[in-house]
Write a structure and sequence with these properties.
Creatine Kinase, Chain A, domain 2, 23 helices, binds magnesium ion, nine-stranded mixed β-sheet, alpha+beta, 689 residues, binds adenosine-5'-diphosphate, Four Helix Bundle (Hemerythrin (Met), subunit A), Ubiquitin-like (UB roll)
Length: 689
């Protein structure tokens, strides 16, 4: 019997082996030449794709893209192009493959596209394979306005990969490398919650906002740590098996599935891939998580913080660079030259992260992630970098020009080999937002629902920038090793502030970071405006990743999104209070009161519990009602529009009012009889699956 993996993996993908079989050698070669495609080639590829897809039962095709709404978009067209003698003619032309028109007016553009020019177009990304899902051929595409500005997440990512390729190749040449391409690789670890679908359907907050806006702590949370890597429940296991198969079919290399720290929380990690492919695959993963969960009677929650008081969900963006011949540039080498190169790339990342901390913070900013960053379970909003004790000690010894004590080595750059310290000793400091983990970096700040395209675009660009600066310094040096030694040493010294191996969750770190002059941008409205700081605009323009107009548009879209999320959340809170919670308290109090009067009419009894509860609950519900009214009033005075002022108002005024309302409501929840409470409780949602 053959293994299911070999049977299904890539079975729905128009991948390289399918292309080799179905394209003529000339077309295959032209497609892989990296040159712009002519229409003849495009027609041949499209025809082969159509034949392959229709043989596999597909009836439709769609350009599949990632507009700035955060989710993917698609528009299905059937292959039917007419009929002859009653028989259908199926067609898919080259021009339909490489370029699609789209009425883009309903997608966010942040002012980039005036409405009279509502059209946008999608363009095929031939490096990311087309695949079939539910009888439709999906063609991964980029999405641009007619004047060429990026309206999506993929375009800037591809641009940043190009920039990084250019910059890294130049540096590698200095080391005598023959590499032809440098590729950014990503492996996004995806966290999520699974809860019972029927319970989900009974919570307006989950339905409207993806997170619980009310909810008292259950007696048990995650304190026993009995869920992390725990045995999978059968229902969850069945879900994961099905999910793996669905992912494998479309070519996603799902590898690891396990329980996470919080009850009902899980993680899926794929094998890493080229950044744009990994990004597409992560979008597919999120879709399939939702779909397969539904089939198993679950709801998959991808929100960054669905439940208060237990961990939220992140998406660790593991990131590295590799050459076309498969060499990982962050793998410490075996020869002095390899090591010098490793150290140079390492300090480039250190410097990049230090100088563009704000951009990394911005790249993960969202209303949902604000609940997670700095919440003592996720990295803080302050960006710092973890290297582990041994590597830090090695860098120190380079700075001090002294013997590295641990392994008794004196490292002369370009002459000595680094001591072998990696992997086993890079202990995992989970509190660090940006960690070196042996042969790659792990950026832990992205939230669970975020596309990795944004943070990866930023990472690629800042590293490209620093590599360019290094190149300029090193390019005509006669004594290369000496110049390299000097550059590496100086870079470590100048960027030491960003290195921190301690506990990122501690209050002391916040103070220490301030002393070091690191950015602390706790919320999205604090972070976003910095995207337009001159140094940041200059960076992105220089590398052709975002134009100023594109940055302005992203700033506007992110603010708008923040405001919309908070608007929906605050209105949902009011509605739940008014229509469900307060009436439920009322019903319960009435029940208690009836009990008291009924009991007293029969005998002279005390009714201690009932009278006490009536007193407490009416007091609390009056309080809650007032808090609800004041939230409602504040909502009335939200500034017009969805700009910075509005976002600040939500942050400074609405969120505190929401928190106050929730606090009373949660206290009430602990007092009301469960069968009177209008919603499934935390305990039921988190432990009942
Ligand atoms: P863990 O962090 O749980 O120990 P691993 O270190 O094996 O697990 O990998 C975590 C993620 O990092 C996986 O998705 C893996 O594919 C990815 N990864 C490993 N090597 C690289 C690399 N060179 N570039 C990008 N991602 C990588
Ligand atoms: Mg990890």
């Amino acid at each position: 019997m053959s293994c299911i993996i070999s049977e299904v993996f890539g079975s729905e993908v128009f991948n390289d082996s399918v292309m080799q079989k179905r394209l003529s050698p000339e077309v295959y070669k032209a497609l892989h030449s990296g040159q712009p495609m002519n229409m003849e080639i495009a027609n041949a590829v499209a025809a082969a794709m159509k034949d392959w897809a229709t043989e596999k039962g597909a009836t439709h095709y769609t350009h599949w893209f990632q507009p700035l709404t955060g989710i993917t978009a698609e528009k299905h067209d059937s292959f039917l192009s007419g009929s002859k003698g009653g028989k259908p003619i199926l067609e898919f032309k080259g021009k339909e493959l490489i370029k699609g028109e789209s009425d883009a007016s309903s997608f966010p553009s942040g002012g980039l596209r005036a409405t009279f020019e509502a059209r946008g177009y999608t363009a095929w990304d031939p490096t990311s394979y087309a695949f079939i899902k539910n009888g439709t051929l999906y063609i991964p595409t980029a999405f641009c306005s007619y004047s060429g500005e990026a309206l999506d997440a993929k375009t800037p990512l591809l641009r940043s990969m190009e920039a990084l390729n250019r910059s890294a190749l130049r540096i590698l040449k200095l080391f005598g490398s023959n590499a032809k391409r440098v590729i950014a690789t990503c492996g996004p670890e995806q966290e999520y919650f699974l809860i019972d679908r029927d319970m989900y359907a009974r919570r307006k907050d989950l339905i409207y906002t993806g997170r619980t806006l009310y909810g008292a702590k259950p007696p048990k949370g995650q304190e026993l740590e009995d869920h992390y890597y725990g045995m999978l429940k059968r229902r969850v296991e069945a879900f994961m098996r099905d999910l793996d198969v669905e992912l494998w079919k479309v070519g996603v290399m799902a590898k690891t599935e396990h329980n996470e720290a919080a009850p009902s929380q899980h993680e899926l990690a794929p094998i890493f891939d080229t950044a744009n492919i990994a990004s597409d695959h992560n979008q597919i993963t999120m879709e399939l998580l939702r779909k397969v969960a539904h089939q198993h009677g679950f709801k998959c929650l991808l929100h960054e913080k669905p439940f208060e008081g237990i961990n939220g969900s992140g998406k660790h963006d593991n990131w590295s660079l590799s050459t076309d011949d498969g060499i990982n540039l962050f793998e410490p080498g075996k020869t002095p030259a390899e090591n010098a190169q490793f150290l140079l790339f390492l300090v480039a990342v250190i410097k990049g992260v230090n100088e563009y901390q704000d951009l990394l913070r911005i790249s993960v900013a969202s209303a949902g992630n604000d609940h997670r960053l700095g919440a003592n379970e996720a990295p803080p909003a302050i960006i710092s970098m973890f290297l582990g004790d041994e590597l830090s000690e090695i860098l120190r010894s380079i700075v001090d020009r002294r013997t590295y004590e641990g392994k008794h080595v004196d490292i002369e750059i370009g002459v000595d080999v680094l001591p072998h310290f990696m992997k086993d000793t890079t202990d995992r400091n989970r509190t660090s937002p940006f960690a070196f983990t042996g042969n790659k970096f792990e950026f832990r700040s992205p939230g669970s629902s975020l596309s990795i395209a944004g943070p990866t675009t930023t990472l690629n660009t800042i590293v490209a920038q620093i590599l360019d600066e290094f190149y300029d310094e090193l390019k005509d040096k006669e004594n290369f090793n000496e110049a390299l030694d000097d550059l590496i040493r100086r870079t470590i010294i100048e960027n030491e502030a960003i290195l921190f191996n301690g506990d990122g969750y501690s209050a002391e770190w916040v103070e220490e970071a301030q002393r070091r002059g690191l950015h602390n941008l706790p919320t999205t409205p604090d972070a976003l405006p910095h995207i337009l700081d001159e140094k940041n605009v200059a960076l992105f323009e220089r590398h052709g990743v975002y134009s100023r107009a594109e940055l302005e548009s992203r700033y506007a879209i992110n603010l708008e999104n923040y405001c919309k999320v908070l608007k929906i959340e605050s209105l949902t809170m009011v509605e739940m209070a008014k229509k469900d919670i307060l009436p439920a308290v009322s019903t319960y109090v009435r029940k208690l009161a009836e009990t008291v009067s009924c009991a007293k009419s029969i005998a002279d009894v005390e009714c201690g519990f009932e009278t006490d509860m009536i007193r407490k609950l009416t007091g609390l519900s009056t309080n809650m009602y007032k808090k609800m009214l004041s939230l409602e009033e504040l909502i009335e005075t939200v500034p017009f529009g969805e700009g910075q002022d509005t976002a600040d108002y939500y942050k400074n005024t609405i969120i505190p009012a929401m928190n106050k309302l929730r606090k009373v409501a949660d206290e009430i929840e602990t007092l009301v009889g469960e069968k009177y409470w209008p919603y499934p409780t935390y305990g039921r949602m988190l432990f009942a699956v």
